[in-house]
Amino acid sequence: MAEGKISSAVIKRLPRYYRHLGELLEQGVERISSGELSERMKVTASQIRQDLNHFGGFGQQGYGYNVKYLYTEIGKILGLDKKHNVIIIGAGNLGRAIANYANFEKRGFVITGIFDKNPAASERELKGKRVMDIGELEDFAGKNRIDIAALTIPKDEAVMVADRLVRLGIKAIWNFAHTDLNVPKDVVVESVHLSESLMRISYKLVNGDEE
Amino acid sequence: MAEGKISSAVIKRLPRYYRHLGELLEQGVERISSGELSERMKVTASQIRQDLNHFGGFGQQGYGYNVKYLYTEIGKILGLDKKHNVIIIGAGNLGRAIANYANFEKRGFVITGIFDKNPAASERELKGKRVMDIGELEDFAGKNRIDIAALTIPKDEAVMVADRLVRLGIKAIWNFAHTDLNVPKDVVVESVHLSESLMRISYKLVNGDEE
Question: Predicted ipTM?
Answer without folding.
Answer: 0.88
